[in-house]
From TrEMBL:
Membership in a protein family: Belongs to the bacterial ribosomal protein bL32 family.
Biased composition (Basic residues): 1-19
Gene transcribed to yield this protein: rpmF
GO cellular component: large ribosomal subunit
Protein name per UniProt: Large ribosomal subunit protein bL32
Family annotation (InterPro entries): Ribosomal_bL32, Ribosomal_bL32_bact, Ribosomal_zn-bd
Taxonomic source organism: Litorilinea aerophila
Pfam families per UniProt: Ribosomal_L32p
Length: 62
């Protein structure tokens, strides 16, 4: 008989141990308006467009 654990490892402890495996580099997608690489589900910081609509007027912020 091989070694056995003394007690059950809780789900929280198990998930904390595995948490660092999921961290990776952020994925990038191409903006449909200016074709720059941006993070998904966010307004493009280069042109201010999101899903084909302008949501930020970057000319005012300059």
């Amino acid at each position: 008989m091989g070694p056995l654990p003394k007690r059950k490892v809780s789900k929280g402890r198990r998930d904390r141990r595995r948490a660092h495996d999921a961290i990776g580099s952020p994925k990038l997608v191409e903006c449909s308006n200016c074709h720059q690489m941006t993070m998904p589900h966010r307004v493009c910081p280069h042109c201010g467009y999101y899903k084909g609509r302008q949501v930020l007027d970057l000319a005012d912020q300059v």
